[in-house]
Amino acid sequence: MALRQYTLEEVRQHAKPTDVWMAIHDKVYDVTKFLHEHPGGEEVLIEYAGKDATTEFDDVGHSSDAKEQMKQYLIGELAEADRKKKTKVNSGSDSSSAAAGSSGSWLGSLKTKLFG
User: Fold this and answer.
1) Which residue from 22, 57, 91, 102 has the highest number of Cβ atoms inside 10 Å of its Cβ?
2) 26 Cβ partners below 8 Å, 6+ apart?
3) Residue-wise DSSP of 91-103
4) 24 pairs with which residues across the strands?
């Protein structure tokens, strides 16, 4: 069964302490009933109510148990137009890092000019 799609505008309409939705990794969660159980305090969830909280969620480094628990609050996914654009990385190598460190790249040349 396909998940219902919500726009970021629809998510933004749920940004009150009594009605807290947020988007994380293109999924939409209603965490209202989780507020009092959240180990980091309800204030953190309320702060990101109605927003895309992917970066903040990832920065905390949630456990696999926490990620599993999230599933019970999943109500849908972001509409395609509101999803973050994913960049493709070549498998087996990080070409951007290789280019950045290469003295032949423009970034490598800039580093040489700035830092000798």
Assistant:
1) 22
2) 77, 78, 83, 84
3) TTS-HHHHHHH-T
4) 27
Please indicate, yes or no, whether the overall pTM of this predicted structure exceeds 0.90.
Answer: no
Nearest to 77 by CA among 31, 9, 23: 23
CA–CA distance, 104 with 94 (Å, rounded to integer): 16
10 close to 17: Cβ distance less than 8 angstroms: no
Q: What are phi and psi of 69, to 5 degrees?
A: -65, -30
The model's pLDDT over 19-45, given as tens digits with 9 standing for 90+, comes to 999 999 999 999 999 998 898 888 889
Over residues 74-78, the mean pLDDT reads 96
Other residues' Cβ atoms within 10 Å of the Cβ of residue 79: 17
Helix ranges restricted to H, 34-80: 42-47, 54-60, 64-70
- Rounded CA separation 57/62 (Å): 7
